[in-house]
Amino acid sequence: PRCIWTLADETCLFTYIKTNCAKSGDGLNFDKSFWAQAAIDIAQSTTGAAKTADSCATKWSQLHATYNVVDRVTHYSGVAWSTDCGTDIIAESEGIWADIIKVSMSIPSAKPYKNKGWVPYNIMCELLPSKASGGRV
Hints:
The chain is mainly α. Helices cover 47% and strands 0% of the residues. It contains 5 helices and no strands.
């Protein structure tokens, strides 16, 4: 069966990673044994199909990639950020959004966060350092 991750499942994974992050290398890069243990430890707390070592590692890679996108958006000058509403772009700030997507960031993967937040952002901030800088990133 296909492995579906709910926010609660992701939170279990975050908790495991946060508790065991000392076992990682630079940038929270973990080996296969870490993910095998993660799958065992979160098994009782997650829903749906069993989360395997591979699915845990894949989910972490996806979350890490999303964090990098959202983090760049949150550090863009002239844009407020909320985990509920994203950048909450209104007509008056549409030009700033166009700049984020097209000129400065060249990351179309930021599009979903125009008016929709990303709930795991604050948790990811606790785990990973920001690579973004203030101003026009």
